[in-house]
Amino acid sequence: MHEAFHYRSLEEVRARLTELGLSLPLSEDISILRQPLQLSRLRLHNRLTVQPMEGCDGGADGSPGEWTYRRYGRYARGGASLLWYEAVAVAPEGRANPRQLWIREENADAFARLNDAVRGEARKAGREAPLLIAQLTHSGRYSKPEGVPAPLIAGSNPYLEGDAPIDPSRIVSDDYLASLPERFAKAARLCERAGFDGADIKCCHRYLLSELLSAYDRPGRYGGPLENRMRLLKECIEAVKAAVSPGFLITCRLNLHDHFPWPYGFGVTEMSGEQPALEEAVRVVSMLHEEEGLELLNFTIGNPYSNPHVNRPYDRGAYVPPEHPFEGLQRMMDCVGTVKAAFPSLKVIGSAFSYLRAFSGCLAAGAVQAGVCDAAGFGRLAFAYPDFAADLLEKGALDPKRCCVACGKCTSLMRAGARAGCVVRDPLYTEEYRRAVLKKGEKQDA
Question: Which CATH architecture fits 10-406?
Answer without folding.
Answer: Alpha-Beta Barrel (3.20)
